[in-house]
Design brief:
The protein is an alpha+beta fold. The protein has two domains: 6-37 and 148-311, D-amino Acid Aminotransferase, Chain A, domain 1 (2-Layer Sandwich); 56-142, Dna Ligase, domain 1 (2-Layer Sandwich). It contains eleven helices and 14 strands. It has helices at 6-11, 17-25, 35-38, 40-49, 64-68, 70-73, 114-125, 232-246, 276-280, 285-295, 301-311; strands at residues 57-61, 80-84, 94-96, 98-100, 103-105, 111-112, 138-142, 160-166, 169-177, 193-197, 204-209, 212-214, 250-258, 262-269. The longest helix has 15 residues, at 232-246. The two termini are 35 Å apart. The model has no long low-confidence stretch (mean pLDDT 92).
Length: 318
């Protein structure tokens, strides 16, 4: 069993939950700005208007009348995602990859009929999957054509890249890789793997599952040291540009790689978790401190990325 002490964690500049809540979030994320990330529909509109790449929006289910029109509205769409605009923790996300007659097919091969689809949409409107149980809308997005370069690193689900930004500077990154334990979802608390990514190179660092280090994917056997994000600097630039859109000083950007369109912003998070430190084998506090003197220089997103790649790399770029 892995045992440590508060003193050792502080020496390693590891941020704890109290510090995250009281300092990182409360001091850097004004509450009136939360809707920019808590409402995924608003996030998409803001990002799209700023020229930031996101998955295409097919439509929005806002009323029960729209639910009754779904069959006709989706007649020409074989693959799509339905998600609550105000959902959290991946709840209420329904992924459809194909059709077989009147049935919709999920990634697992499971079937969903049209009545199931309507029920799911109605539940979304009622707030079943939403923060605080408030009424909501159901977004229908184009399904991302995930790049096969990450094949074998995830079970059923697809890898996403979480980049944590401090005042617009990308200070730490990891990929969340689904497993059988996590039921194909990229949720570390449910058993997904957290794989640290070097800020300079986009190459794999450490991997953890259930808080313990691992070297290979538990289901596919793929060795993690071969994981490398292509065009890594573009991921960092995309995430950094989200600071101007949200104005949040402590921000998590979740990015996926589309085979044709490249990196796309999937979601933004005003309360990113702390397990990313374990996956990187280092705490974030030192990096936050290094960023502070740079903030007043009003650097561009590209300049912020260059600073972080120069100062926070952990691997030999060669």
């Amino acid at each position: 069993m892995f045992i440590t002490t508060p003193g050792k964690l502080k020496k390693a500049s590891v941020i704890g939950m109290n510090h995250r809540n009281v300092v990182c979030i409360a001091r850097n994320n004004p509450r009136h700005l939360y809707p920019r990330v808590d409402n995924k529909l608003l996030t998409k509109i803001l990002a799209r208007d700023a020229g930031i790449a996101v998955p295409n929006l097919i439509g929005v289910v806002k009323t029960q009348g729209h639910v009754r029109e779904l069959k006709e509205f989706l007649a020409d769409d074989k693959a799509f995602v339905i998600k609550p605009a105000k959902g959290s923790g991946g709840k209420g996300i329904l992924v459809i990859t194909d059709r077989d007659g009147e049935d919709y097919l999920k990634p697992s091969g499971g079937r969903v009929n049209h009545q199931d689809l309507c029920k799911h949409s109605s539940n979304t409107l009622s707030g079943l999957f939403s923060l605080g149980g408030n009424t909501d809308v159901a977004m229908i997005e184009e399904l991302v054509d995930f790049d096969p370069i990450f094949d074998g690193f995830s079970y059923q689900g697809v890898p996403d890249i979480r980049i944590v930004l401090y005042k617009g500077y990308p200070v730490m990154a990891m990929s969340r890789l689904s497993t059988k334990d996590s039921d194909g979802k990229a949720n570390l608390h449910q058993g997904a793997v957290g794989l640290g990514i070097d800020i300079s190179t986009g190459k794999a660092l450490k991997a953890i599952q259930h808080g313990h280090p691992i070297t290979h994917h538990p289901d596919t056997g793929k060795e993690f040291k071969g994981f490398h994000v292509p065009d890594w600097t573009e991921f960092l630039k995309l995430s950094s540009r989200c600071y101007e859109v949200t104005e949040l000083g402590y921000l998590g950007a979740d990015i996926v790689l589309d085979a044709k369109k490249g990196p796309l912003i999937l979601e933004l998070n005003a309360r990113p978790g702390l397990a990313i430190q374990m996956a990187n084998g280092i705490g974030m506090q030192t990096r936050f401190a290094a960023v502070e003197p740079e903030v007043k220089k009003n650097r561009s997103p590209e300049e912020r990325v260059a600073f972080c790649q120069d100062h926070f790399g952990m691997l030999d770029p060669s």
